[in-house]
Design brief:
Length: about 325
């Protein structure tokens, strides 16, 4: 009983440690701190991709009202638009996002409007301004020449369907626009991975599955059986097939990524060739490993008898074959 209680306590402590680790976030730069002065922004953090930084302030009188400030350094003079949005679905993703997009025009002026990001948008259809279920006001896009920053500022009021302690948000940058119609953004990895779930109450954020992955690793360390345990072989089988399942999923994900990026067909052929070579190598190693294992299992085991105490001299070790 005491052992079970100790085990539960250890797992609970590990759970808290993992949770606190996931809550860590990188604060924003000094440039954004200075840009935010004079605006109603008290929290900020660096987002994980595209060099974008995000600042916010939840209203003390209405927790549904949030001032947001999205900013990125203008590393490319051709950058035309900056976007940020929220998604009411279970996972942070582009499709279904209610977005605010600020477009910088060639004459130096800029403006921001609201957009609904749909599956048609992902397929490349034109994206036009539209009403969204998030009330947005005081929207503006500004270029801060002293820091070479492009900033998007707005005040939003979230409907009850959104949870500010677990808010799915999306950000993006693009390099072309026609009037109020932003062109398709690049399909580089950073552009397709610009999503996360954030807690606006304390600033913690994590990618999808990050916390669950860490928790699985912690629990695996606790429940990993010893070599003498009866169910050790089932643990080995589990790890064996889990490893191959992960390899299969990774391979399929790469095919999915190729379909998204739509490169030249030679990329897919090259990848298939690499997978074929990899498969041959893995098969050969598996055959070698199993052959070595079965040979070792068939080999007779020996043990050494200790000499009887009191004998004058230690006799030569006598071996017996165990059946």
């Amino acid at each position: 009983m005491a052992s079970a209680a100790v085990t539960k306590f250890i797992v609970f402590v590990l759970f808290l440690l993992v949770n606190s680790s996931a809550a860590h976030y990188i604060p924003c730069s000094e440039s954004l701190v200075e840009i935010a002065q004079g605006k109603n922004i008290s929290h900020c953090k660096k987002l994980t991709t595209l060099g974008v930084e995000f600042g916010w302030e939840v209203s003390k009188h209405n927790e549904r009202q949030i001032d947001i400030l999205v900013s990125t350094r203008l590393n490319n003079a051709e950058m035309m638009w900056l976007a940020w949005g929220v998604n009411p679905q279970d996972r942070p993703q582009m499709v279904g996002t209610r977005a605010i997009i600020g477009i910088r025009h060639l004459n130096g002026s800029g403006g921001a409007k609201t957009y609904n990001i749909t599956a048609d948008t992902k397929l490349g259809c034109k994206l036009q301004p539209s009403e969204i279920d998030v009330h947005a006001k005081n929207m503006s896009l500004d270029y801060v020449a002293s820091f070479d920053y492009l900033t998007l500022h707005a005040t939003i009021v979230l409907p009850p369907i959104y949870n500010i302690s677990r808010l799915n948000h999306v950000w993006q940058v693009g390099y072309g626009a026609q009037g109020a119609e932003p062109a398709m953004h690049p399909t580089a990895l950073q552009n397709v991975d610009s999503t996360e779930t954030i807690d606006l109450e304390n600033g913690s954020a994590q990618h999808v599955g990050e916390f669950e992955s860490r928790l699985r690793k912690v629990l695996a360390l606790r429940w990993k059986p010893h070599k003498t345990d009866d169910y050790r072989k089932y643990w080995n089988i589990y790890h064996h097939f889990l490893g191959y399942a992960l390899l299969a999923v990774i391979s399929l994900n790469i095919f999915h990524g190729i379909d998204i990026l739509k490169p030249d067909h030679s990329w897919k052929r090259a990848y298939v060739g690499i997978l074929g070579v990899f498969g041959v190598i893995v098969t050969a190693l598996e055959i070698f490993t199993w052959a070595k294992y079965l040979t070792k299992e068939k080999k007779p085991k020996t043990r050494t008898e200790n000499p009887k105490p009191g004998s004058g001299s230690a006799p030569a070790a006598e071996t017996q074959t165990t059946r």
